[in-house]
Amino acid sequence: MKATEVPAIAGAFLFEPTPHTDPRGFFSRTFDADVLRSVGLDPNAFVQDSVSRSARGVLRGLHLRSGAGEAKLVRCSYGRIFDVVVDLRPDSPTYRAHASFELSDRTQVTLYVPAGCAHGFQALTEPADVSYRIDRPHDPAEDVTIAHDDPELAIPWPLPATSMSPRDREAPGLAVALKQMGR
User: Fold this and answer.
1) CATH superfamily of 2-181
2) pTM score of the predicted model
3) At residue 180, does pLDDT exceed 90?
4) Which of 111, 116, 133, 154 lies 20 to 30 Å from 29 when distance is taken between CA atoms?
């Protein structure tokens, strides 16, 4: 497994596995504590695993947690997604920058999203399963959502959004969300 720093988002990493393929399919390591340690991440910090399944065109996000934030490892375990990270850490050299990636079951690449960054994705296939490994138990009182189509961010979502949660659909723009968080 190889770790690659994401230049557009300080502290973000892509973890690229080495799948072993044969006529049966493939086997791939998707988590390696030693590789995380090699880039300064504590593998024991992750306390919760979750999975979501989305139909093609579903857009989830942009989500983050207030307070201490939440770091996460994100991987598309089935299908393909357009994944986005927005750096909302005021002291970061990449503050307000965003980066996008295509994550897929073919590569099994895992994205590390640092605490204080917003995250969202759009399903490009029918369906797309996304696995998350999170470093804090979820507390709904800390949930923050930012409009996916905020003009200040100008994220180039690849498909029209076919479905969104009411929370995502009614999310405030970046400036309002940052003000609500005291930033």
Assistant:
1) Jelly Rolls (2.60.120.10)
2) 0.93
3) no
4) 116
